[in-house]
Write a structure and sequence with these properties.
This protein has about 270 residues and is an alpha/beta fold. The protein contains 9 helices and 11 strands. About 40% of the residues lie in helices and about 15% in strands. The strands form 5 sheets. A 3-stranded parallel sheet has the order 3-4-9, sandwiched between helices.
Length: about 270
C-alpha cells in the first residue's frame, strides 16, 4: 500500500475500459495523485512533458505473436514468425512499441516495461456490435436472441479455435504489481493460463444469458488464429501475479452488468 501513497501516476485512457479499473485499483492502494488528462491537456508527443515520467508501463498485445506459435505462447517466441494475417498490422505496431521501449532503456536508462495481455473482458466492456470483441459480442447477441424468441443464433467460424481470457479487474491488479515489482527489458505475458474453444465459450454464454436456441456455425467466416494460450509463469515469477477470477464467474458478472445497464438505459428492455 505504501508504495503508491507518495507517487504521482499518469493513466492514459483512464476513461476507457481497462483504464477505469486501473484508476480504481490505484485508489484502493492509497494513491492520491492520479492524473487522467485528455490528449489536449497532456500531449505524450511533447518531449518536455514525457520527461516528467520516471517509469512507463506499456501494454502490448498477444496479437503480436506469430500465427503458429507453439502453445503455450512463451515470450521468447514473439519474433519467430509473422502474426495472423487479420491482426498483423496491429500486432506489428505493438511489437515496435516493445522495440522502442527496449531502445530507450538501453540508450537512456529509461525505466519502461511492456506487458502482453490476452483478451480482456468484464463489466463496462464495449458492447457496440460494430466494434466489440468476441465475449461482449456473444453476450449481446445471445441476450437479443433470447428476447426475440429466436430458435437459432449464427456464430462465425466453426468454433474450433481456442482463446484465453483475463478478467479486467485481474488485469488492472497485474499492471500495478508489475509497476511495483518489475523493471526489466523483456516483455511479460498477462493471462489466466486457461484455454477455451470458441464453441465452448458460445455455449457457456448462451447458458448464462438464458438463450435456449441452437447455435449454428458459419464456417464460411474466418476462424482467426487457431490457438491462443499463454505461458504465464514469467508474470508469477517476476512480480507475483496469478489470475484469480474463474471464467464462468467473470462471465456471469459481465452478463449481469450488461443486462442491468440495458434496463437502466432502456426500461422497455425489461419487459
Amino acid at each position: 500500500m505504501g508504495f503508491w501513497e507518495s507517487r504521482r501516476v499518469l493513466v492514459t485512457g483512464a476513461g476507457g475500459f481497462l483504464g477505469s479499473y486501473v484508476v480504481e485499483a490505484l485508489r484502493r492502494r492509497g494513491c492520491a495523485r492520479i492524473h487522467t488528462p485528455r490528449r489536449e491537456e497532456y500531449d505524450l508527443l511533447d518531449g518536455a512533458a514525457v520527461r516528467r515520467i520516471r517509469k512507463l508501463v506499456a501494454l502490448g498485445t498477444i496479437c503480436s505473436y506469430p500465427k503458429f506459435t507453439p502453445v503455450p505462447f512463451r515470450e521468447e517466441d514473439l519474433w519467430n514468425g509473422y502474426p495472423e494475417e487479420t491482426n498483423a498490422p496491429y500486432g506489428l505496431a505493438k511489437r515496435m512499441l516493445l522495440v522502442q521501449a527496449q531502445a530507450y532503456r538501453a540508450q537512456y536508462g529509461f525505466e519502461s516495461i511492456v506487458l502482453l495481455p490476452v483478451n480482456l473482458y468484464g463489466p463496462r466492456d464495449n458492447f457496440d456490435p460494430r466494434s466489440s470483441h468476441v465475449i461482449p459480442a456473444l453476450i449481446r447477441r445471445s441476450v437479443e436472441a433470447r428476447e426475440r424468441g429466436d430458435t437459432e443464433m449464427v456464430v462465425w467460424g466453426d468454433g474450433s479455435p481456442t482463446r484465453e481470457f483475463l478478467f479486467v479487474e485481474d488485469a488492472a491488479e497485474a499492471i500495478l504489481l508489475a509497476a511495483e515489482r518489475y523493471d526489466g527489458a523483456e516483455p511479460v505475458n498477462l493471462g489466466s493460463g486457461v484455454e477455451i474453444s470458441i464453441r465452448r465459450l458460445a455455449e457457456l454464454i448462451a447458458r448464462l444469458t438464458g438463450f435456449q436456441g441452437t447455435l449454428r456455425w458459419d464456417a464460411s467466416r474466418p476462424n482467426g488464429q487457431p490457438r491462443r494460450l499463454l505461458d504465464v509463469s514469467r508474470a508469477e515469477r517476476l512480480f507475483g501475479f496469478r489470475a484469480w477470477t474463474p471464467l464462468e464467474e467473470g462471465l456471469r458478472r459481465t452478463v449481469a452488468w450488461y443486462e442491468t445497464t440495458r434496463v437502466a438505459a432502456n426500461p422497455k428492455a425489461a419487459s
